[in-house]
Write a structure and sequence with these properties.
155 residues, 25% helix, tt1808, chain A
């Protein structure tokens, strides 16, 4: 990432900092170090790592979902796992990239080496105070399939 872009990002210790990016946001996103989401032409740094409680809850939910979907044609993925959105359905250069805490994909055709092409069948976000507004206001709008959000706020 260029020094200019780093200067626009601000304090990287909070994942709610965001910046406007170029006319080819996915190509920008590919060059950044670390874990980022690209939502509505804004970059969201996923640093720092979630809390221990957040990760424990995600782990328990992952186990429950894997157990439930064990003999079904659905796959359960845990972040970091990219969900790619493209208005033109060109997933080699998507418009947006998100990383839900958990994604259930029931269409094998959606799974690529880069993640999930389009909205998964089910997403789960374990909410934390630092990301709740972004998750509900920016990220949630990207998921057009059924979405379920955990109401746990003090992670």
């Amino acid at each position: 990432m260029s020094e200019e872009a780093k200067g626009r990002i601000g304090d990287l210790r909070t994942n709610i900092e965001r910046v406007e990016i170029s006319n080819d946001p996915y190509q920008d996103w590919l060059t950044w170090e670390g874990s980022w989401e690209l939502i509505n032409n804004k970059a969201y740094n996923m640093y720092p790592a979630p809390t221990a409680l957040h990760q424990f809850i995600v782990g328990e939910l992952h186990f429950a979902l894997r157990t439930f979907f064990q003999n079904r044609s659905c796959y359960v993925f845990v972040a970091p796992f990219d969900v790619l959105f493209s208005e033109s359905e060109d997933y080699q250069s998507p418009d947006q990239v998100t990383q839900p805490d958990l994604s259930v994909v029931c269409s094998k055709d959606q799974i690529s080496k880069n993640g999930c092409n389009g909205a998964p069948t089910l997403i789960i976000e374990v909410l934390s105070p630092a990301t709740a507004l972004k998750d509900f206001n920016e990220k949630f709008n990207q998921f057009i399939s059924e979405a379920w959000s955990s109401g746990i706020l003090d992670c």
